[in-house]
Each structure stands twice: as structure tokens, then as C-alpha cells.
Amino acid sequence: MTLARIAHIAVSVQRNPTVRRIASSFASRVLGAVANLAFVVYLGRYLGAAQTGLYMIGLGAATLLSTIGRLGLEQIVIREGGPLVRDGQWRALRSIYRRTQRMSLCASIAIAALLLLVNDPLAHDVFHQESLRDVMPWFAASIIPLAFALLHVPFLQIIHRPEASIAILSLWIPLISLPLMLLVHPQTGVQGAQIYLAASVFNAALAYAQWRRFIAHKTRDIAERAVPHPPLLSAAAPLLIGNVGQMALLWVAVFAVGMSASPGAVGAYSIAQRVALTLSGFLVPPIDALVGPRIAVMRGVKTRDEIEEMVQRISSLLFVVAAGAFILILLFGPEILKLFGGEFGEGYGALVFLTFGQLVIVASGSVRPLLVVHGREKTIRNAMSGAAACCIVLCAVLLPLIGPVGAAIATSLSLAGEKIVEGVAARRRLGISVFPSVGFYALHLKNWLARNDGQRS
């Protein structure tokens, strides 16, 4: 690439607000991925496979239960709040914020209390790990700040703060946890859980501060007036079921391995999963942070073909990048796992199959924001809950036969099936295809080659 071409790209990024936000979001995501990778590496090295396994079981419970605590409201915020931002109805937007946070906090507190209540039988009778009793209370406490912080993500997205939303979603917790870990040198899962709780509280405070600063400025000189109260919980119910199914897809296998194998096996599988999740986690959230609100604004204004063109461009770009990352993991997976310690090398087989499932997720692009904006929450719910049920069944069949690799295969097949179902639903019900055809790739490859030939000549 010539210097002139690089300069041209830099000028384009600077002049185009959308491109600039995408670039900034990716920068936040890159930093978050680096911080998260460094955190997990040190976690594995300090705790070892067994204690890492206990930590991951607790983290999985907190992540899944905080999803329930958010009540499926995130996508409803984007759908209802996007037009309010477009029309400058800041009082109405603040009203939605207060209602959603109030409902989520009440639900999260109740869920955390319930987890504490069942902590002993969970550790003794389900996972058969007495040490888990000391780890789980700290993760139970983290459910509340985690749900509170993550419910700010859609609000930051619709007010055109994608960088801040990505930071809340994936940057601040590992970025704060890493120096705490280097300071404390944790030796047990309990100490790791305490670090996670502290980072979650800090993340929640940052999320609130950014929202508060924005909305206080916008509503300062606006006279109070009655605002509409759109239904939130009834619309969010299908998405809650779907979101729980989505989280279950990521953690069912971890829990299944934890119930049938040693904590060391859980640790090795969990680290493999964290590496694989980096693929979709690195690419999809920055795109969704921009595409979801963008589709909400385009709906009813742009044609179906224009929306499809945008979605397919995103899908094709993500697929090309993800395919390259998949090849690198195939080739260098064992070396990557050695970064965490020699005990984690047995997770390579699981890593390969989990990465394949993430490849399909990335290739589907922004199908979920597309369905949400068009009111297809039940389609998402059915796809996610069906995939979660399939994952449970496949884990029950494959895990006894081939161990943690079977859990990875079950997870990948279920994730791939979910995205294919959502893509087919978008095609049939909206007339929009999210999966580009071979001809689409061929046309854009031809155009790219032609542009490069023209620049060289």
C-alpha cells in the first residue's frame, strides 16, 4: 500500500463521521481485547487450571444471571430510544432510562439474593466442589453493578457514543482488573472474584457518569412536559428469553464440564473458549453499536435494497477478517494456549471447534439488530432458545463420549444453527439477505483488483 493511499484513507476517516466512529470503536475494542487477553493470561498463570476453573464457573453464573437482571431491555432501548434521539425528545429518553434502570436493579438484587440462598447446595450437590462456596458470593454481588453498567450500553449507542459503549461492554473491567491482579498476585478463585467485583463497580460508576453528563446537558433548558410511556417489559419478554438462551449457549458447556470433570478440565476449556470468543467479541460489538441505531433510523426512510446492501457489505468484510483469524488459530493454537501455562494445552481441540462456531457468528453480520428494529423479537427468542436446548442435548450426548471437545462441538453447532435460522428468517420475513452470495464476493474482489490496478498505473 502506497503512502498516498494511506494518506487518502486517513483523510477519509477524518472527514466521515460514521467511519471515524467505526475506527474509534475498533480502537476501543482492540485495547479491550489486549487488556482482556493479558488479564486472562495472568489469571491462568497465577491461579492455575483448577482455580481458574472455579473462577470461570462463578463468572459464568454472574454473566448469565446479570443477563436475566437486564430483563431483555437492551434491544427495546435501541428501538424505542433511537427515534427519540433523532427527534430531540430528551425528557422522554430520560424517562425510559429511569424506568429501565429501576426495573433492572430490582430484578438484579433479587437474583443476587437468590444465588446466595442456593450457594451451598449449588457447590455441594451440583458441581461437587466445596471451594466454590467461597467463590460464588463475590460473583453474586457483582451481578448488580454488572447489570447496571451493561444496561447503559444501548443508551450510549443511541446517543452516538459507540466508543464509550464498547469500553463499558468490554474494556474497563479487564483494564481495571489487570493492575489489581498484578498488585495482589491472587492465588485462589476467591481473590480473583474479589478483583472482578471491584472492577465491575468501577465500570458501573463510569457508565453512569458518562450518561449523566450527557443527559444533564441535554435537558437543562427544556421545560418539563408529559412524555409517552411505551410498554417495555411486554416487548422485552421475548428478548429476555432469547438473551438468556444466548448466554446459556456460551456457558452451558462450561457448567457441563464442571459437573462431569475436574476443575482443571474446566479451566482448560474455559481458556479455550475465552480465546475463541475474542474473534466475535472483537468484531461484532463495534459494528452492532453503530449498525443497530443506523438501521432504526433507516427503517421507513431507505429502501429494502439499500438496507440489504449495507448489511451485506458488513457481513462480507467481517467474514474475510474472521476467516483469516480462524486460519491463524488453526496454525498457532497450541502456542497461543501455552501463554496461559502448560496445563491449558489440552484445550486446543476445543479451541478449534469453538472458533469455527464464532466464524459463523461473525459471518452473519448484524442480523440481530436488523430483526429487532423490524419487531422480530420472537424470531430471535425462538432461535436462541432452540439453540440453547440443542446445546444441552448435544452436551449430554457428546460430553460422555469425547469429553470437553464434545462440549465445544455442541456449542459450535448450536451457535451456527442459531445464526443460520436468524438469517433465513430475515430473508423470508423481511426480504433481506444477510449472507452475501458468492457473486457478491466475486464482484467486490473484481472491483478491488481494478482499483488497485488503476492506482499502480
UniProtKB/TrEMBL annotation:
The chain crosses the membrane at residues 30-48, 54-73, 100-118, 138-159, 166-187, 193-211, 232-259, 271-293, 314-333, 348-371, 383-410. GO terms for cellular component: plasma membrane. Its main location: membrane. It holds the Pfam family Polysacc_synt. It is found in: Cell membrane. Keywords: Cell membrane, Membrane, Transmembrane, Transmembrane helix. It comes from the Bacteria. InterPro entries: Poly_Biosynth_Transport, Polysacc_synth. It is a multi-pass membrane protein. PANTHER family: O-ANTIGEN TRANSPORTER-RELATED, PST FAMILY PREDICTED COLANIC ACID TRANSPORTER. This is Membrane protein involved in the export of O-antigen and teichoic acid. It comes from Paraburkholderia steynii.
